[in-house]
Amino acid sequence: MNPPNSKPLISRRRIQKRTAELGIEISVYYQDKPLLVTAICNGALLFAADLIRNITVPMQFDTLAVESYIGEQSSGEIRFRSQPKLDPSGKHLLLLDDIIDTGLTISKIIEYYQKFKPLSIKTCALLNKPSRRQGTVQADWLGFDIPDKFVVGYGLDCNEYLRNIPYIGTL
Ligand code: IMP
Ligand code: MG
């Protein structure tokens, strides 16, 4: 699969700047709160790696692997491919995702984590496609709003390819 041949939709430099800003906001918010940050994988891995290096308060880190898309189509269901390693109960849980598109994936993940009884659940997504939303779910922190286009890179894939592109591009 070839990398995008148009110019980046969001450059590496803009992503770096935005993750630094988000890191500061999140650090201020979670000061003196027991914080567990969980990256939804694989898509949020690169975002999480950059963002948590900008979080300056004590925190634990975990991952949860889910699958929700096949190619460029939402499969309409999500599959859990792993279980949390760290127990979220008694902690403030911050979920990191790559993109909120219809919002169905993050809604189901929030529902899943409620049974662990964390002190709170909040979400931070790098990208947001507001025009595609079904339901009312909204991220508490957002990197960028983008138009309704299929994007790849910086962790986001097309058929598992192109996650390694260091910027966000369109196909
Ligand atoms: P949602 O359930 O429709 O919100 O979809 C969320 C998931 O679908 C994300 O975590 C991504 O893995 C995937 N996804 C949605 N839009 C895109 C895209 O434009 N490119 C790559 N993956 C996407
Ligand atoms: Mg994903």
Considering the chains and any ligands shown, give keywords for the structure.
171 residues, alpha/beta, Rossmann fold, six-stranded mixed sheet, 3 helices, 22% helix, binds inosinic acid, binds magnesium ion
Largest sheet: 6 strands, mixed
Uncertain stretches of 5 or more adjacent residues: none
Provide the CATH topology: Rossmann fold
In helices, the fraction of residues equals 10-25%
Give the distance, in angstroms, between the N- and C-terminal Cα atoms: 10 Å
Helix-strand sequence? HEHEEEHEEEE
CATH level-1 class: Alpha Beta
Individual helix count: 3
Output the radius of gyration: 15 Å
Shape: globular
Mean pLDDT: 94
Oligomeric description of these chains: single chain
Number of strands: 8
Structural class based on helices, strands and sheet pairing = alpha/beta
Cofactors and ligands: inosinic acid, magnesium ion
Q: What is the topology, as strand order, of the major beta sheet?
A: 3-2-1-4-5-6
CATH-level-2 architecture = 3-Layer(aba) Sandwich
Tally of distinct domains: 1
Share in β-strands: 25-35%
